[in-house]
Specification:
Residues 431-753 form the Cobalamin-independent methionine synthase MetE C-terminal/archaeal domain. One of its GO terms (biological process) is methionine biosynthetic process. Keywords: Amino-acid biosynthesis, Metal-binding, Methionine biosynthesis, Methyltransferase, Transferase, Zinc. Residues 7-314 form the Cobalamin-independent methionine synthase MetE N-terminal domain. By secondary structure, the chain is α/β, with parallel strands linked by helices. It has a domain at 415-760: TIM Barrel. Helix 1 (19-29) runs antiparallel to helix 2. The structure holds glutamine and zinc ion. The site of zinc ion has 6 residues, from loops.
């Protein structure tokens, strides 16, 4: 029997110590010059490759590395650059242009940013503009391929986003998808020809959209495109890679003229296996078997995976199988070796990127050399998972979906009658202004928190510091004239971690960083067992804030679905159960805030949309439990208590009805970064509860002008009832500087005043 190989689909770019983030930020701040920036990035890139080589990966991905985002790289490579950036430099797409597209400049707004399927990674949306000529500005996959070859002797496998998916990621007036793809086609072909001429054997063409839904036209286009590739570059082997769910149109897609097909056998396990059993697998292709969960951190049950491979052998022989992670390891931390503080039972039961590659290597050995060769490793893993199970029993709560039914999820009164009561008690002006919760996390704030964590600051000192920050920002908000104040979230390192630390069932890593967007990384908590409430989590700071001002203060919590979606979740129970458990715990917190005299509580759910399953048939089930979870957490308050929610950076159009079903009194929603798309959505759908359409993008350092924001308000007011309308930024302000925040908020309040006056007249 031939040998089964190990392949990887993408490696985290951030580095073990988040060198990537530091390098980028120093470059942006000007403390690193371009030459040094290139050098440091190259060192990291090479180190990442070397590591995979050392771990025994047979097919190592190249071109997965980027200076910001791999979708943006493709846009820059094909000159899908909006005109507004084109005078920034004379070079085709300079670094200045590249980062301007990603982050915006004082003169120009950034390109839209949105979530990568149902993950918390954000990509930059390619923005096609008529009249911009598409060309191959540089061949990045080729550069990556040559670098790996020259520096390390690695015969890398360039990763490229396939034309159908790239087109579907793009926005703009490009006409039909087919027309656009035909414009891109020669550029793809040139890229591939140059790769082939340089001696490249395999290219991984990612077509993640093939798991979402495919129309007949898509299918025809796909056939055409891959036939063109075959004709133009006959020697180059393409593996058509899919992930995050099962392949649609399996029967037809396996007939495409490509040399391999990669399937996710974790997230699309059942359906992909069924397709394989029903339609078999062509004899001229490699099967990329996505075996190990690339999106979670649990060590896997190796015996179960081994048996799965054996089962697959009925359809595909070993020499035509590559075992690989289910998707790129982009959404998994780098290496678990840094986790010295985790309890041993957890430390032993997790696997980050490197450990996942080790698992794959052992599975390959088990198949190639026999099970005996891996006994020790298999036994050790099984014992670790058994320990985890024992620990879970210790925190088990009395919870079942059955007893949930007896707990109501309805507010005591309808929105209309709540609305009147809240209006009477809160006495807010027309178009009330507010912010989303966080204020700048300055170096000073971060350093105080770190000192406190290290023990260098006593809890009294730290508390005093937090109080000072709250007070400072209460005064700033009052000064600016904001109507509903927030305390600023200074005590929170991260909106999920903060709550996880105070609930039962969570654990925290020291180094479990994953990239969220640009240089921003997050460290998702681990939910390893049942979740329950221990003690109030936000009452102290919120109540202190309220004690300083006569303006109403809004308490801010992170919602159940967001906590779930932004954590590494146990995989031994269904996700909805975990979500309900979190909701029940938050319900106690909401009621504690209300009891302490807080009249507005915002439960943030920015991650609701991203958790939406990729296939439409799975939507209603998910939305049903997501909505129930939110309502479970919030419905018990008095009619006078105003429940807010907040969402951002997603395609919300599809789920507006469910957003309304949350029954929140007010939602604040990102609008500006997506260039007003939300406003158009409300032309079609009448939103009948309180709503604040974000009036400016908070990710960009540029200060929006008053005029710009009153434009957004004016447009918004055409589609939303005036008395339901709120004014707020797109999202929290933690990533901005204090000066930027104050300047922007001043303009925002001015804009609101101006429009308000106009309305009253
Ligand atoms: N309340 C959070 C903040 O203001 C919300 C952040 C988010 O939506 N991601 O930072
Ligand atoms: Zn947000």
């Amino acid at each position: 029997m031939g040998k089964l190989l190990v392949s990887n689909l993408g490696y985290p770019r951030i580095g073990f110590d988040r060198q990537w983030k530091k390098c980028l930020e120093s470059f942006w701040q000007g403390s690193l010059d371009q030459e040094q920036f290139f050098k440091d990035m190259k060192d990291l890139r090479i180190a990442n490759l070397q590591k995979q080589k050392d771990l025994g990966v047979d097919w190592i991905p190249v071109n997965d590395f980027t200076f910001y985002d791999h979708v943006l790289d493709m846009a820059a490579m094909f000159n899908v650059v909006p005109k507004r950036y084109q005078n920034l430099s004379t070079a085709p797409v300079s670094l200045t242009t590249y980062f301007a597209m990603a982050r915006g400049t004082q003169e120009n707004v950034a390109c839209e940013m949105t979530k990568w399927f149902n993950t918390n990674y954000h990509y930059i949306v390619p923005e096609y503009e008529q009249g911009v000529e598409l060309t191959l500005t540089h061949n990045k996959p080729l550069e990556a391929f040559l670098e790996a070859k020259q520096q390390l002797g690695i015969n890398g496998k360039p990763v490229i986003i396939g034309p159908l998916s790239f087109a579907k990621f793009s926005k703009g007036n490009y006409g039909t998808l087919s027309k656009y793809v035909h414009k891109l086609l020669p550029l793809y072909i040139q890229t591939l020809q140059e790769l082939s001429a340089a001696g490249c054997d395999w290219v991984q063409m990612d077509e993640p959209f093939l798991v979402v839904n495919i129309t007949n036209e898509d299918m025809e286009l796909l056939k055409h495109v891959y036939q063109e590739f075959k004709t133009a570059v006959p020697k180059l082997k393409i593996i058509l890679q899919t992930y995050f769910d099962s392949l649609e149109n399996y029967e037809q897609i396996i007939q495409l003229p490509v040399a391999g097909i990669g399937l996710d056998f974790v997230h699309g396990y059942k359906e992909n296996l069924k397709s394989l059993e029903t339609f078999k697998f062509p004899e001229d292709k490699i099967l990329g078997l996505g075996l190990i969960n690339g999106r979670n951190i649990w060590r896997c049950d190796l015996m179960e995976k081994y048996k799965l491979i054996q089962k697959i052998f009925q359809f595909v022989p070993a020499e035509r199988i590559w075992i690989q992670p289910s998707c790129s390891l982009l959404t998994t931390p780098v290496s678990a070796t840094g986790e010295k503080k985790l309890a041993p039972f957890l430390r032993n039961s997790i696997a980050y990127s490197d450990e996942k590659l080790v698992e794959l290597k052992h599975l390959a050995d088990a198949c190639n050399k026999g099970l005996d060769s891996v006994t020790e490793f298999f036994n050790e893993a099984a014992a670790a998972l058994k320990d985890l199970e024992d620990e879970r029993l210790k925190i088990k709560i009395n919870f079942s979906l059955e007893n949930l039914k007896s707990i109501g999820i309805e507010r005591s009164e309808s929105f209309e009658s709540r609305f009147e009561k809240q209006r009477a008690s809160l006495k807010l002006p027309l178009l009330p202004t507010t912010t989303i919760g966080s204020f700048p996390q300055t170096t000073q704030v971060r350093s105080a928190r770190n000192k406190f964590k290290r023990g260098a600051l006593s809890s009294e000192e730290y508390e005093k510091f937090i109080k000072e920050q709250i007070e400072k920002w209460v005064r700033i908000q009052e000064e600016i004239g904001i109507d509903v104040l927030v305390h600023g979230e200074f005590e929170r390192n991260d909106m999920v971690e903060y709550f996880g630390e105070k609930l039962v069932g969570f654990a925290f890593t020291s180094n479990g960083w994953v990239q969220s967007y640009g240089s921003r990384c997050v460290k998702p908590p681990i939910i390893y067992g049942d979740v329950s409430f221990k003690e109030p989590m936000t009452v102290k700071e919120t109540v202190y804030c309220q004690s300083l001002t006569s303006k109403p203060v809004k308490g801010i919590l992170t919602g159940p679905v967001t906590i779930l979606n932004w954590s590494f979740v146990r995989d031994d129970v269904p996700r909805n159960e975990v979500s309900y458990q979190i909701a029940l715990a938050l319900r106690d917190e909401v009621l504690a805030l209300e009891a302490a005299g807080i009249n507005l509580v915002q439960v943030d759910e920015p991650a609701v949309r991203e958790g939406l399953p990729l296939k439409k048939i799975d939507w209603s089930d998910y939305l049903d439990w997501a909505v129930k979870s939110f309502r479970l957490a919030t419905c018990k308050v008095k009619p006078e208590t105003q429940i807010h929610t907040h969402m951002c950076y997603c395609e919300f159009q599809d789920i507006i009805q469910s957003i309304l079903d949350l029954d929140a009194d007010v939602i604040s929603i990102e609008t500006s970064r997506s260039h007003g798309e939300m406003i158009s959505a409300f032309e079609k759908f009448k939103y009948s509860k309180g709503i604040g359409l974000g009036v400016y993008d908070i990710h960009s350092p540029r200060i929006p002008s008053k005029e710009e924001m009153s434009d957004v308000l004016t447009r918004g007011l055409k589609v939303v009832d005036t008395k339901l309308f709120w004014v707020n930024p797109d999202c929290g302000l933690k990533t901005r500087t204090e000066d930027q925040t104050i300047a922007a908020l001043k303009n925002m309040v001015e804009a609101a005043k101006e429009v308000r006056e106009r309305l009253i007249k």
